[in-house]
C-alpha cells in the first residue's frame, strides 16, 4: 500500500535524486471577473503567486487540473497575462532532470508540435507545465482547439489527456522517470459528466499501462469532472477509476480538500486541490485555499499543502431571523429597521474578523468578500439589499450582493440519500425494466459504498498494493458478462 | 543619393558580411474570410509561403507593415495558425549576425519583455520579425493591447513603432548594425489618418536621429496609412515624411507597387508591397502580388521582387452593354437572355485564361476569383445575379458575387483634381478665414507637388544625400514661424 513520507526526507539521502517534486494546482480560472474594478486582477495575481511558488520550490514540473482559463475564448488581456506569467516563470536555465519514456507523438498527438516543450531545442524551459483542459476551456468549434492549445502551440504548456473520440477513451500515460522513480501520468480532459459516466459504464474507458515493470510505476491521474453527486449520472464515482492508480488529482471541484483522502475500495488516494479563486459565494469557496507540493519517490508520496497568500478573503455567515425572538418579531413595528441593524452588525463582525486576519499579510487583497445569508421565513419581509450594501461600498469587494435572502434554510448536506439496493429489487418488475442500466449501476454503487465486504484488502507498508481487490466496476462487468 | 545595386552583389565581396537581407511584406490579413469554405485557408497558406521564403532566403529579419491580422480580435484558429507558422520558421539554430545598438527598453517600451526576441536567452530565434501594427490589428480597449502583442509576449515578434500618446509622436529608431552597414529602423503603427495628418501639420511628429554619425545610417521607415487621397486630410502625403529617410515601406495600401519609386521632392524611395490576400474585388487587388527581398549595404539598396505563388487568381473585367449595339439593344425582345449569354461568355473567357495561367503552378489555389463589372446604363435591365452565378458555382471561388452591375461607368482615375493655390487665394477673405489650417496646407501640398523649383537636388551616386533640401512641410513651418 502507498505510504506517505515526511517532508525533509530528501535531505537524508544524497547522490541520485529520485524524488519528483510536482506543484499541483487547478481551476485557476484566469480572467474570472476581469472587468470588475475591484476583483478584476485577482486571478492574474494568484496565477503569478502559483507559478512563483513553482519556481521557488524548484519543482520538476507543474500539474494543472483544468480550467486554467475561465472563458472558453479568453480575452486578449487574459491571454496576455497568462503568457507573460508563463514566460516569466517557466523559462530559464535551471536544468530539468527527468526524462520522458513514452511516445510523445502519442501523448501530444493533437499538437502541431507533438513533443514535450522542455525537449524543444528552441525553447529554454525551466519548469514544464502539464495540463488537461477543463470544462471552461475545453476544445470547441470546427477547429477543435481550446485556449490552452494556443499556449501549447507557443511552447508554454504541455496539453495532455485529450481524446478526439467521443466513442471511447484510450488513455496513454506520459511516462516520466527521475532517478529510480517512475511516474505514469494519466489524464482525461473535461468530458460532459453524463457522457463520461456512460463511457465508464459501457467499458469504453481504457487506461493503458506500460508493458515493462507494470507495478513499478507511480500512477498519477488527473481528472476534471464532478466529484460530488449532481443527479444520477452527472458525476464520476471514484469507484469508476482504475484501482491500479496511486493518486488521483481531482479538478473542477472548487472546495480545497487537498489533503489526500484514501478511497478504501479502490485503495488509491484522491487530492482535490480546489480552485485558486472564489467564483461563487458559497461555503465551499470559503475554505482556505491551497496548492500542493507533491513529492513522489518510488511508490511513496508526500503532499505538502501550500496556503495561497493572494486569495481574497471570503466570510460567509448564515442567520435565521426567527431564531432571535428576543430581538425582533415579524409583527413588531419597525421590525425591518431592527433586522437591518442586526444584519449590519453581523457584516461588521465579519469585516472586523477579516481585518484582524489580514494584518501582517501584505499579499492579501484589501477588500474581503462578505456574504450574509438571511433566512427570513416565519413572516419577515425582505428589504432593499442595494441600499443596505451602500454602507459597505468602500469596505467589501462585492458590495452588490452582500445579503442573500433565503426562505427555508437548506440543509448543508443536501445530497439526498438514495434508495438502497433491496428497495430497488422489491419494485414491480415492469418498473425495474424501465430503469436504464445506468440507473441500476448508480444505485448499485451507492449501495456498494457501504458494502465493502467483497474486497479483501491486504496492505504492506513498504511494498504498496500487494493484492489488488476487484473494484465495484470490475465486479459489475463480471456480473454483466455472466 | 541612394543608388540601387544589382542582386548578386554580395558574391563579389567576401570576409565581412555587410549586407542586410530583409524580407518585406505587409497586410497579410490572417483570418480574412476564415469561415469561407473555399477561401478560408488562403491567408494561412500565404503566410506560410512568406515565412518559408524568409527562411529559404536566409534573411536577417522580416519586416511587416501592419495588418498581420484581419480582425482586431483574431479567432483562436487564426492565432493558432499564426503562432504555428512563426514557431516553425522563426525558431532554429541559424545564427543572427546583426546587432541592436539602440536602447531596446525604449524601442519596445510597451512590451512586458522589452528587448528584441532574438537576444532573449530562452528563445532560439533564427529569424526575428519586426512589425508595426495596422488599422486592423491596432491596440484597443482599456488594456491598450493589440493582437500582435500576444505574439510579442510569447517572444515571436518584435512590435515596434508604437506610441502611447495621442498628443505627439516621438519615434526612436531601432538601430541595427551588420558589419559596416547600419540601419535606423523607424515605424509608426497605424493612427487614424485624420489625426496623424493633424499631428504632422502641428509639428507633433518627431523622428529622432542617432547622435553618432547621423549621415552614416540607412534610414528605413515603415508606415501603415492611406497613401492615396481619401478626402482632404484622410491620408498622409509623402511630403510630410522627413527627407532624411532613404526608403519608406508603405503598408495599408493593397495594390502591389513594390518596386521602389523615388519621391522627387523628398528624395527618398517608397515601396508599397501591397497585401498578400485579395480582400476586395477591385482592380488594385488584381495586380500580381509580391513580397520584397531588400538588400541594404551601406547606403545602397536593392529590392528584389518575389512573386507569391499561393495567391488565389483574380480576374476582373469591365463591360459596357451600350457599347455593343450589334449584339443587343434595350428594346429588343429577349435582350436579357442575350446579355446573360454575353456575360457568360466573358466569365468563361476569364476562367479559361485563369486555367491557362494556373497550369504548371501547383501552389495556386484551384478556383479563381472572377468579377465582371457590367455597366447597364442606357436602358438595360439587371438580371438575377445569383441565378447567373449558379453556372459557375464549382468553378469560381466567389460564386455569390461574380457580377457587379454599375449604372454609369466610373472613371478609373477618379481622384479629383483639386483647386490650385492661386484659385484659393482669390477667394473672398471671409471665406478664406473659415478654412482650417489643414485645408490650406492640403491645398498647398497639392500645388507643391508640381512646384518643385524650390528644391535644389544635388546627388552623388556614392555618397547618398549630400545637400538635403527643405521639404514642403519644413518650408511650411518656416513660413508659419515668420
Features:
482 residues, Purple Acid Phosphatase, chain A, domain 2, Translation Initiation Factor IF3, 24% helix, single-stranded DNA endodeoxyribonuclease activity (chains A, B), Metallo-depent_PP-like (chains A, B), endonuclease (chains A, B), Mre11_capping_dom (chains A, B)
Description:
- 2 copies of one chain form a homodimer.
- The first copy, chain A, is of the alpha/beta class and 482 residues long.
- The first copy, chain A, is 24% helix and 20% strand.
- The first copy, chain A, folds into 2 domains: 19-307, Metallo-dependent phosphatases (Purple Acid Phosphatase, chain A, domain 2), CATH 3.60.21.10; 314-406, Mre11, capping domain (Translation Initiation Factor IF3, 2-Layer Sandwich).
- Chain A has helices at 9-12, 42-56, 76-90, 104-107, 147-153, 193-201, 335-358, 385-390, 421-425, 429-434, 437-448, 472-481, and strands spanning 20-25, 61-64, 99-100, 129-131, 158-159, 169-171, 174-178, 181-188, 205-207, 218-224, 247-251, 257-263, 268-272, 290-297, 300-307, 314-320, 369-375, 403-406.
- Chain A has a 7-stranded mixed beta sheet, with no helix packed on it. In chain A, strands 5-4-2-1-14-15 form a 6-stranded mixed beta sheet, covered by helices on one side. In chain A, strands 16-17-18 form a 3-stranded parallel beta sheet.
- The interface between A and B is medium-sized, with 29 and 29 residues.
- Chains A, B: Its cofactor is Mn(2+).
Amino acid at each position: 500500500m502507498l505510504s506517505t513520507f515526511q517532508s525533509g526526507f530528501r535531505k537524508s539521502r544524497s547522490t541520485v535524486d529520485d524524488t519528483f517534486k510536482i506543484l499541483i494546482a487547478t481551476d485557476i480560472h484566469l480572467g474570472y471577473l476581469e472587468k470588475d474594478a475591484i476583483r478584476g486582477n485577482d486571478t492574474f495575481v494568484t496565477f503569478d503567486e502559483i507559478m512563483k511558488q513553482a519556481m521557488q520550490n524548484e519543482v520538476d514540473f507543474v500539474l494543472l487540473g483544468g480550467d486554467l482559463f475561465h472563458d472558453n475564448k479568453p480575452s486578449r488581456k487574459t491571454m496576455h497575462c497568462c503568457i507573460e506569467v508563463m514566460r516569466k516563470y517557466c523559462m530559464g536555465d535551471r536544468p530539468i532532470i527527468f526524462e520522458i519514456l513514452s511516445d510523445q507523438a502519442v501523448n501530444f498527438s493533437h499538437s502541431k508540435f507533438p513533443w514535450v516543450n522542455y525537449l524543444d531545442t528552441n525553447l529554454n524551459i525551466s519548469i514544464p507545465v502539464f495540463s488537461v483542459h477543463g470544462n471552461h476551456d475545453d476544445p470547441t468549434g470546427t477547429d477543435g482547439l481550446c485556449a490552452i492549445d494556443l499556449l501549447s502551440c507557443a511552447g508554454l504548456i504541455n496539453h495532455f489527456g485529450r481524446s478526439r473520440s467521443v466513442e471511447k477513451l484510450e488513455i496513454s500515460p506520459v511516462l516520466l522517470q527521475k532517478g529510480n522513480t517512475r511516474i505514469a501520468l494519466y489524464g482525461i480532459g473535461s468530458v460532459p459528466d453524463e457522457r463520461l459516466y456512460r463511457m465508464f459504464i459501457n467499458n469504453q474507458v481504457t487506461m493503458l499501462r506500460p508493458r515493462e515493470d507494470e507495478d513499478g510505476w507511480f500512477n498519477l491521474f488527473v481528472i476534471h469532472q464532478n466529484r460530488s453527486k449532481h443527479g444520477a449520472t452527472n458525476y464520476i464515482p471514484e469507484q469508476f477509476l482504475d484501482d491500479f492508480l496511486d493518486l488521483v488529482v481531482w479538478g473542477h471541484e472548487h472546495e480545497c480538500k487537498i489533503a489526500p483522502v484514501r478511497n478504501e475500495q479502490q485503495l488509491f488516494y484522491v487530492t482535490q486541490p480546489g480552485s485558486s479563486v472564489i467564483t461563487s459565494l458559497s461555503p465551499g469557496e470559503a475554505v482556505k485555499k491551497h496548492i500542493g507540493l507533491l513529492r513522489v519517490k518510488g511508490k511513496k508520496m508526500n503532499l505538502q499543502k501550500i496556503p495561497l497568500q493572494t486569495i481574497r478573503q471570503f466570510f460567509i455567515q448564515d442567520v435565521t431571523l426567527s431564531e432571535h425572538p428576543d430581538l425582533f418579531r415579524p409583527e413588531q413595528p419597525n421590525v425591518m429597521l431592527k433586522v437591518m441593524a442586526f444584519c449590519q452588525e453581523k457584516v461588521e463582525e465579519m469585516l472586523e474578523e477579516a481585518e484582524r486576519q489580514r494584518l501582517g499579510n501584505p499579499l492579501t487583497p484589501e477588500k474581503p468578500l462578505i456574504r450574509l445569508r438571511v433566512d427570513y421565513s416565519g413572516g419577515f419581509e425582505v428589504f432593499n439589499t442595494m441600499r443596505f450594501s451602500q454602507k459597505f461600498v468602500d469596505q467589501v469587494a462585492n458590495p452588490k450582493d452582500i445579503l442573500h435572502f433565503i426562505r427555508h434554510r437548506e440543509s448543508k448536506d443536501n445530497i439526498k440519500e438514495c434508495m438502497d439496493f433491496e428497495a430497488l429489487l422489491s419494485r414491480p418488475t415492469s418498473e425495474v425494466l424501465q430503469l436504464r442500466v445506468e440507473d441500476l449501476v448508480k444505485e448499485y454503487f451507492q449501495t456498494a459504498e457501504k458494502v465493502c465486504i467483497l474486497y479483501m484488502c491486504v496492505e504492506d507498508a513498504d511494498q504498496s498494493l500487494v493484492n489488488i481487490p476487484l473494484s465495484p466496476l470490475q465486479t459489475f462487468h463480471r456480473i454483466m458478462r455472466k
